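Slide 14.
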Amino acid sequence: MALFNQDYIVKMRYEFMNNISDFQYEIDNSGQWNDATEQNREVDGNYIRFTVAIPNQVQTAHTITGLRILDADRNVIARRDLSIVVNATQIVLFVLRISYQEV
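Slide 15: predicted structure.
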């Protein structure tokens, strides 16, 4: 039996989702973070799903080496190291699913 009722957990998923402000990405371990473009966000069952577009601003082949998430206060609240090789004409769509449930 769960400790929290389902209505409360659903409410907390939306609050968590709404506290996320921005996504940023890093190219070639440069230490410079660029803003990604959020395409969609939604609560999907026990998950919070974000779809983020990472444009090819440099117009050359490169590697996306990191993605980070910022909260409403612009604090970095999460970071993921990546290794996504991109050619000169690609745009990357990154789908992030975060599980939010009582265990």
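Speaker note: The mean pLDDT is 93.
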